Amino acid sequence: MNQEKSKSQELFRDKPVWTAIFSMAIPSCITILVMVFYNMADMFFIGQLGDTAQVAAVSVVGPVFSIVTAAATMLGIGGCSVIAKTSGEGKIEGAKAYSSLCFYAATIFGVIAAIVMLTATKPILGLLGANDEILVYAGDYMRTLAVGAPVLLLSTTLSALLRADGAIKEGLIGNMIGTVLNIVLDPIFILGLHMGVVGAAIATLIGNAVSTIFYIWFILKKAQTLSIKPALALKKPTAIFHITAVGLPNGISSILSGLAATFSNNLLENYGTNALAAMGAAGKATMIITMIQMGICMGVQPMLAYNYGARDVARLKEVMKKLSILTFVLGLVATLGCIFARHALIGMFLKDVAAQSMGEQLVVYLVLASPIIGFYYLGTNFLQASGNAMAATVVSLLRQGALLIPAVFIMDYFFGFLGIALAHTLADGISTGIAVLAFYMQFKKLRNMKKVTEK
């Protein structure tokens, strides 16, 4: 244990900053990229059918599963934090009880979500913005995924819980198994067996099911602080409220993201099926930019927390400066790449010429703020590292919720179809400015504390 601690101190405190950054950022980015490919797989292979309606159906149904998986996000991230803290206090049985509680809570939430989606498919799709042209496809896609909702929630929850046991490598393996299997099965079901969106949904469920089986195997055979024994879950059933409260900021962010996408789709419905498909394709084509920047900042967060706690202002300043350079340069290069390669990127998902043209326009507007979005993630991760949970929560809710949702309606009113894409850029820019301001205030607070200590 002491050896592990000394290695952590060496990495966070003593190693050259660039070496430390890449040591932590690269594994995090690999995990993020696995998630990106997983999210892109269904739409890519459905796009090969040349049916814009089926592409639009996948895009329309996406938000409902963002909202549903918010429960898994709250359980996974909240559970990971509570389990790690409890095991750190030496209460291993308590940690196992929390993990078991998360397991069965995710299962129950998944069953409830499945029942709601299966019994209220048409009203839900109406709220999501599905028009008559895509209603059948969207219904088939959502019902198939709904059947496996418990597995979808379990996969998300358990992958997060494994981090509390220190099983970062195993969590990555589980994610990769599911993603690779999904990518392999997609062309078989969608193109080979001509199952379309239903085949995409089945491939997704199988991938998540295999990942879940792997996670359960690890918990049963190798985990030290995790368990799925029902008796342990019944010891502290009310602790579920504490766990979800800890994971609430992340869950709310997922919910607001889903709501924002739903409102966007409802507005896009006025411009036709091509518009719905175009926005879905443009979102998939550009998501890698923000996901990589997010991965870098999340990966380096432990070093920020360590040096903030040590009040090492000089090293912390150097880390933030080099992270700023790294995220800006990557963001700028990726943005230019997306703009110049937008025809090929959109072509991966759409074959219809009119829809593809709309998607290419949207890409340009969606990535305008991408070079600076890394500063947003730097600000929020710094606030979390400093322990300022309230500020971190407020800032994290701005981009996908408090700013984006009203901006979508306002920009659509003034600028029409392209205004919906501009709303994302506007929300990104404003939230980045606020995040940087909050970071500056927190950093200034640290410098003041250090001056008081040195007196």
How would you describe the overall organization of this protein?
With 455 residues, the chain is mostly helical. Helix 8 (168-192) packs antiparallel against helix 9. The chain has 2 domains: 1-29 and 272-455, no CATH class; 48-246, no CATH class. It has 20 helices and no strands. Helices cover 86% and strands 0% of the residues. The protein has helices spanning 2-14, 17-47, 52-88, 92-119, 121-128, 135-147, 149-164, 168-192, 196-221, 230-233, 239-246, 248-268, 273-309, 313-340, 342-347, 353-366, 373-385, 389-402, 404-415, 417-454.
Relevant terms:
disordered N terminus; mainly alpha; single chain; 2 domains; 0% strand; 20 helices; 455 residues
> Which range does the strand content fall in?
under 5%
Helix content: over 70%
Radius of gyration: 22 Å
The N- to C-terminal Cα distance equals 35 Å
Please report the total strand number as a whole number: 0
